[in-house]
Every structure is written in C-alpha cells, then in structure tokens.
Specification:
Length: 323
C-alpha cells in the first residue's frame, strides 16, 4: 500500500499510483484499506498527476478487516505511543540525492539504476545495462541483480569500465551484509525486506518505524498489503494501485500472497538494512503518509486509529488534488 499506512513503505495505503482508466474518484472515495506509500522522493511525486482510485468493489474496510483478523499483531511486540507530531512541526530527514559519483537509493534496478549509474559516472546507458546483465552475483541473488547494486558514493579509478563500476556496487552490497553479520542464508530475505522499507518511505527518519510495522506484519504471517510491492512489475511509475491489480494473481501482489515478495523491489541503502535488522519496539500495525510533499507519516496500533490517520491524508488530498 502506499506509504505506509501499510502495513509495510507510504501511500496511505490508500493505494499507490495513478488511475490508468482515467475515471478517478475524489479523496473521500479512496480505499480506506490502503495504508502505505511507495517511495518516490516527495519532489518527484509533486510533479506527477496521480488520480486517487475508488475503493475495491467490496467495502472500504475489507482489506484492513482481513489484515486485522487473519494477521493479528503478534503478542510479543511492545506497545508504544504513535509518533504523531503535528504536521506543521514535522522535520523530515531527506534521503540522499544522486550526483557526480553518487547513485541515490530507491529506484527499481531495471527501470532506474542503469540510467543513474550512467549519469553518475559518465557511462553510456546501454553500456551499463550490458554490464548489469554480465555482473557476477553471489549465489544468494538467484541470478537477479535487483537490489544487489548498493547505492552510494564511489570513486572509480581513471578509465574504469562500466563493468568494473557495476561489480564494485555488487561487491559493496556483499560487504554490507557481511559487516552486519547477516547469515548467508538470510541475505536474500534481509535485502528484500530492506527494499520494501526503501520503497515505502519518503524520508530516512521514517525507516525505523516502517521497519517495525513490516516486522510485525511478517510475524503475523499474512499478506503485507503494500502497494510498493504490487507496483514493482508495473511498467509506469505511479503511486496508487487499481482494484484489478490488488485482485490479480501476479507474484508481487502483496494483497494475495503472504510475506515478502519473491525478489527485492529496488536497491535499498544502508539505513534501510539497519532499520530492518534493528527496528524499534512498537505494536504498530498500520501507517499512512499524511503529507505527500513532506512525507510525514502516522502510525497506528488499531484500525480505528488508522482510520483517523487516513482521514488526514484524505484532507490533504482534497487540498492538493494533484499531489
């Protein structure tokens, strides 16, 4: 779902993308079941024309009803107050930005990273794409480079090839996992979870709390219900999902399938890895980004609390019809 009202990275779980059909609904008609937000930088979202979608044909509480009855929060978590600072007082900690010698996090590999790497290091995009196809991956990657190219700042040697640059990114990812003492048989799981946190958040300071929601939902054993996961195979870049996408059988449908997606859904940074490996205590089961420009996110333990938070997003959307 989108930002996290998810249950997993930010769109009020009110879905996460534009309406392909063009017959969008008003903010009041948004699905109250969506609780997360896909993780595109706020400034990028502001330039998009995403039309909120109507709720699924059942009821506006169907999705959350199932998530709170079939995947109840585990009894082992510790209840703590929701970090609900007033919107006017919210101070975001933005994610890193791209630039010379720097690849920023948050983009799906096949859609964004080849261009990001080419831009950052002065390569031809086709050259980088070929290097990604030929890069040497650890067996844990299962043959897919998604998530294995670690974002960050690099200082390649003069004359370094695109192949050497891409391999350095994979090698750095392996080092990151080893430095955190992640068992090799958990590399894929940890990287996949971190990628969901990355896509579900606007800001670095939201990652720990989103990681707690994700951890709670994984412990519950049910579907994560996060739009960022559903949208991974979608060709275009958008925020909200459609009712058809949430009802589909595609392997990345986090409303139909339990647990993490089959592969990472983007290339996460170290903050996302650390958030998943050591989330703060909390019983939060829902979250929703209530300001799609600042990325301010509210967390809730109960569905009733989440509904109140979701109304804040609806109010924001009424004031910002083109987020």
């Amino acid at each position: 779902m989108a930002a996290l009202a998810v249950a997993a990275v930010l769109v009020i779980a009110l879905g996460g993308g534009g309406d392909e059909s063009g017959d969008g609904a008003t903010p009041d008609e948004l699905a109250a079941t969506e609780t997360s937000v896909t993780a595109t930088a706020p400034q990028d979202r502001a330039s998009r024309s995403a039309t909120p979608l109507p709720p699924p044909a059942t009821t506006t509480t169907t999705t959350f009803a199932s998530s709170t009855t079939t995947t109840a929060p585990p009894a082992t978590t510790t209840t703590s107050a929701s970090p609900a600072a007033p919107s006017s007082g919210y101070t975001p900690l933005p994610k890193p930005t791209a630039g010379p010698d720097t690849v920023a996090p948050g983009g799906a590999l096949t859609k964004h990273l080849a261009v990001d790497v080419a831009t950052a290091f002065g390569f031809d995009t086709a050259e980088v794409e070929a290097a990604i196809d030929q890069v040497e991956l650890p067996p844990e990657a299962g043959g897919s480079p998604e998530g294995w190219l670690a974002p960050g700042t690099y200082q390649p040697a003069d004359g370094a090839s695109a192949g050497a640059m891409v391999q350095a990114m994979v090698d750095r990812r392996v080092v990151q996992l080893e430095e955190r003492n992640v068992a090799r048989d958990q590399w894929h799981r940890v990287l996949t979870a971190a990628s969901v946190i990355e896509k579900e958040t606007y800001n670095q300071n939201e990652k720990p709390s989103v990681a707690r929601v994700l951890t709670n939902r994984l412990a519950g054993g049910g579907p994560l219900q996060m739009d960022s996961i559903i949208l991974y195979p979608v060709p275009e870049d958008r925020i909200f999902t459609t009712s058809e996408e949430r009802a589909s059988d595609q392997p990345y449908n986090s409303y139909r399938h339990n647990g993490l997606p089959p592969t990472p859904i983007c290339s996460p940074d170290e903050a996302s890895l650390d958030a998943f490996l050591a989330p703060p205590p909390g019983d939060w089961w829902f979250y929703v980004t209530i300001d799609l420009h600042s990325g301010e996110t509210r967390y809730a333990v109960t569905y009733e609390e989440h509904q109140a938070n979701a109304e804040l997003l609806r109010a924001w959307l009424r004031d910002h019809p083109t987020p």
